[in-house]
Amino acid sequence: EPWALGFGAMPTQYVRFTGAADLRMRLVCATLSGRALRVDDIRAKTESPGLRDYEASLLRLLDKLTNGMAVEINESGTALKYKPGVVVGGRRVTHDCGGGRAVGYFLEAVLCVSLFAKKPLDLTLTGITNDECDISVDTFRTITLPMMKRNFGCDEGLSLTIVRRGAPPGANGEINVKLPILKELKLLDWTDEGLVKRVRGVAFTLRLSPQTGNRLVDAARGVLNKFLPDVYIFTDHSAGDGREGGKGARRQKKSTPGFGLSLVAETTTGCLIGADAASGAGRAAWEEGLSAFGEGNTTEDGEEKEQKTGGHSFELGGDGTTETRKRGRGEPATPEDIGTSTTEALMAEIQRGGVCDSAHQPLVLLLMAIGPEQLSKVRLGQLTPRAVKTLRVVKAFFGVTFNIQPEPESGTVFLSTVGAGIRN
């Protein structure tokens, strides 16, 4: 009889997508909305179809942060069913992000989800801290977290500590992040961008001469000092491999040499705009006079190892978009190149306008969509492809749409919406 099925037999209502693009944002929205997600044809037509290691790693991390999550992946990895659990948070959670993507890829997802957890989160992540394709931990610490405090009401207990840096492909870095919980997000009315008054930055070197950091700083200041006098860039040199601890230091696997630069421009109204870049694996090793994998390109058992840095193309903008950037031994970049290109990227972000840089557009739009059920407003620069995808994903999960008004004279876009009113 039909009534013998009971209530447990109701079919799951999936939100359906095809393709791998923006999988991270889909998982975050599914977790926040509590709705089941189904994704088909994940890279089905490529040479290596299915989920990547870093996407599987993100699912494992979400599993650690939630209770009752269920995931089904088919044999080829091209179809995914995801039923979210209850976000619990908690202390002393650790996760190894692996060498596929930098820690920033995971941090952006964890930040949104953990705000609505049952307990504050204390999370330790290991992996790559600075690379060429994801948001760096410096940018996260100096831009994302202050933005959350100032504009979204996360006041207490929000912090990020860089324990140890890691460059690709060594993936030997470690960070600790503490994220509080919220009852609900603050109403956002953030439209005044102001003028840039000062620039701060961090130039890091890992297992390289400290002189490399000075070369980064000189190149960046050479461009910035033409525009404003208040420029200060810190240098952060780490010898790596536990050498700081003396004889008794724990023997860790060898970290890969690397260098990079993260810049932040602060405006008169307190908006923060950033840009960062880091060396590819091959160039930094060349600076140190080694191959990209320490002493020779052999694995521990003596087999010849394939140099995976060269031809490994990466999807920019998060999660499998068509733009690709070569990782590693593409064009060799000197510290001067990195310093100049990062500074020019910062100038481009400032010229673009808006209250946050293009990397933070998806985060701001998502937080507006799950915010209180009142009218929230924001002014952004020209929307990136990733921001446009975020608008679509948000509409599918929360039914929230945005009113978008371009302002041709300033080149910015004015967005307003009524949030879904998600409460904890």
Structural notes for this entry:
- 27% of the residues lie in helices and 26% in strands.
- It is of the alpha+beta class and 424 residues long.
- Mean pLDDT is 85; it is low at 1-7, 243-249 and 282-330.
- 46% of the residues are buried.
- Helix 5 runs parallel beside helix 7.
- The strands form six sheets. A four-stranded mixed β-sheet has the order 1-2-5-4, covered by helices on one side. The chain has a four-stranded mixed β-sheet with strand order 7-8-10-9, with helices on one face.
- The longest helix is centred in the C-terminal third of the chain and has 18 residues, at 335-352.
Keywords:
424 residues, four-stranded mixed beta sheet
Describe the SSE topology.
Blueprint: E1 14-18, H1 23-33, E2 36-40, H2 53-65, E3 66-67, E4 70-73, E5 80-83, E6 86-87, E7 90-96, H3 103-114, E8 121-127, H4 137-152, E9 159-164, E10 173-179, E11 189-190, E12 196-206, H5 211-224, E13 231-238, E14 258-267, E15 272-278, H6 281-288, E16 313-315, E17 324-326, H7 335-352, H8 361-369, E18 375-380, H9 385-398, E19 403-407, E20 412-418
Parallel strand pairs: 1-2, 7-8, 11-18, 12-13
Antiparallel strand pairs: 2-5, 3-6, 4-5, 8-10, 9-10, 12-14, 14-15, 16-17, 18-20, 19-20
Helix pairs in contact: 1-3, 1-9, 5-7, 8-9
Q: Could you give the count of β-strands? A: 20
Average predicted local confidence, pLDDT: 85
- How much helicity do the residues have? 25-40%
Number of helices: 9
